[in-house]
């Protein structure tokens, strides 16, 4: 590998560039997309097939080191950035992976007033239409004397999953979940965002006390590609 790296650096040194760069998209350790071209600031350089093969051989050689720096918890698709500095006799590797951030939201909603009736302006009420929906769901899905329902939820990619369903502090395993997921969707669209269940989505707990109070503790997940801490430099002396 030492000799291959020397040939790679000498090739670009012979072209007369100070730096060239390229990026390659991977699915874990398999190349998904690469145009086999390099940029030098003034245009594209298309190296010979033998130079392309050296780059691929070097990547395979260093792949375990790349894996140690990368983040695969949310996606095995990632991008490798290669910067070659011929006059410095150095090749630099950096990467970009998908990361997830979470933002917490808490809601404490007064069910004794609707938006139309409230004059506080503190956004702790819901429209009468949603209050009616809550009451109708209670009427159709639980006994008349039951006033409290709580459950956990995890929504992503427009799919809503419910669990830990309690009525009056008693856990129910055999319950129709669809009406409660529909109700949750209507509430969350109003309180958080119409996209609350898209992509990475939202998870949390909802507790409803009929005609009194509704609380939601949830975390909104967002995912995006960000640079990792990878900053690997390779020279011919890196190899025996």
Brief sketch in words of this structure:
This protein is 26% helix and 38% strand.
Structural class: alpha+beta
User: How much helix is in the residues?
Assistant: 25-40%
Q: Per DSSP, what share of the residues sits in E-state strands of 2 or more residues?
A: 35-45%
- The low-confidence parts are none
How can the largest sheet be summarized?
A: 10 strands, antiparallel
- How many beta-strand elements? 12
Sum up the overall morphology in one term.
Answer: rod-shaped
Tally of alpha and pi helices: 4
What is the CA-based Rg, rounded?
A: 28 Å
> What is the chain-wise order of helices and strands?
HEEEEHEEHEEEHEEE
Explain what the structure shows:
The protein has 240 residues and is of the alpha+beta class. It contains four helices and twelve strands. The strands form two sheets. Strands 1, 2, 5, 6, 7, 8, 9, 10, 11 and 12 form a ten-stranded antiparallel β-sheet that branches. The mean pLDDT is 94.
């Amino acid at each position: 590998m030492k000799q291959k790296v020397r040939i790679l650096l000498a090739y670009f040194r012979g072209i007369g560039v100070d730096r060239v760069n390229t990026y390659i998209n991977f699915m874990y350790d398999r190349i998904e997309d690469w145009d086999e071209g390099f940029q030098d600031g003034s245009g594209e350089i298309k190296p010979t097939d033998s130079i392309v093969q050296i780059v691929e051989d070097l990547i395979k050689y260093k792949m375990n080191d790349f894996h140690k720096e990368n983040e695969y918890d949310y996606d095995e698709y990632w991008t490798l950035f290669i910067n070659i500095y011929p006059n410095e006799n150095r090749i630099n590797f950096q990467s970009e992976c998908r990361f997830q951030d979470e933002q917490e939201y808490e809601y404490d909603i007064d069910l004794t007033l609707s938006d139309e009736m409230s004059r506080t302006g503190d956004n702790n009420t819901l429209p009468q239409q949603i209050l009616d929906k809550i009451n109708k769901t209670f009427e159709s899905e639980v006994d008349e004397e039951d006033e409290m329902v709580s459950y956990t939820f995890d929504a992503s990619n427009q799919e809503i999953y419910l669990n830990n369903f309690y009525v009056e502090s008693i856990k129910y395993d055999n319950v129709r979940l669809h009406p409660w997921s529909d109700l949750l969707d209507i509430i969350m669209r109003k309180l958080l965002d119409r996209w609350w269940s898209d992509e990475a989505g939202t998870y949390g707990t909802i507790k409803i006390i009929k005609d009194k109070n509704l609380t939601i503790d949830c975390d909104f997940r967002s995912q995006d590609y960000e640079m990792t801490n990878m900053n690997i430099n390779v020279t011919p002396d890196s190899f025996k």
